[in-house]
Amino acid sequence: MYAVVGCSECSNLWIIEGRSETTQCPRCGSRKKYEKRKKFVETEDGDHAREVRASMLANRQGHGEAFAELDSYSDLESQVDGGVVDDAEYLEASGLDVDELEAAGERDPRGSTSSGSRKEIVERALEELDRPTEAEVITYADDRGVPADYVERALEKLHRRGEVSESGGRYRRL
C-alpha cells in the first residue's frame, strides 16, 4: 500500500510505502504516528500515488493546468524505454568522432595508466620493492608514467595516515 502524506510542520509531501508505526518527514525531520499524518490518498498502485503527489505539487506552484496536459508516469516511462540514445549515437549526432574521443581519454594524463592508478602504482612499489628509498619509488613509478611530484606527495600522505613508516630514508608498508 502507498500513501501520499503531508507534514504539518513544513508542508512537505511524500510517499510512504507500507505502513509503519511512526513516520519522519524527510525535509524537517518531525516524527509522528502514522495515524496522525494527513493522508491525501491511499492506494495499492505506486504510479497512482506518484501522480497524485506530483499533481498536488504542481497545483501548489500554480502549474496545475500544465500538469494536467502531461501523460501519466506509466505512459511517459513507456515512451522513454524505446527512445533512449546511447553515448556513441549522441556523440556522432553532435558531429564528434567517437574513436578519436576514446583515444583522447586513454591519453588523459590525469586518469589511470595501463598498470593501475597513480596511487595504486605507488602502493605497488612499496609492496614489491624491499624497503625502498623515495628515489627508488620515484624510479619505479616514473617507469609506469607517474610523475615524481605526485610520488612525493603520495608518500607524504601515506606516512601521515600511518599506512607506511619511514626510517633512515627507507619506506615500508604497515
Automatic annotation (TrEMBL):
InterPro entries: DUF5817 (IPR043855), DUF5817_C (IPR053849). Residues 95-120 are annotated as: Disordered. The lineage of its organism: Archaea, Methanobacteriati, Methanobacteriota, Stenosarchaea group, Halobacteria. Residues 2-58, 120-173 form the DUF5817 domain. Gene3D superfamilies: Structural Genomics, Unknown Function 30-nov-00 1gh9 Mol_id (3.90.820.10). This is DUF5817 domain-containing protein. It comes from the Archaea.
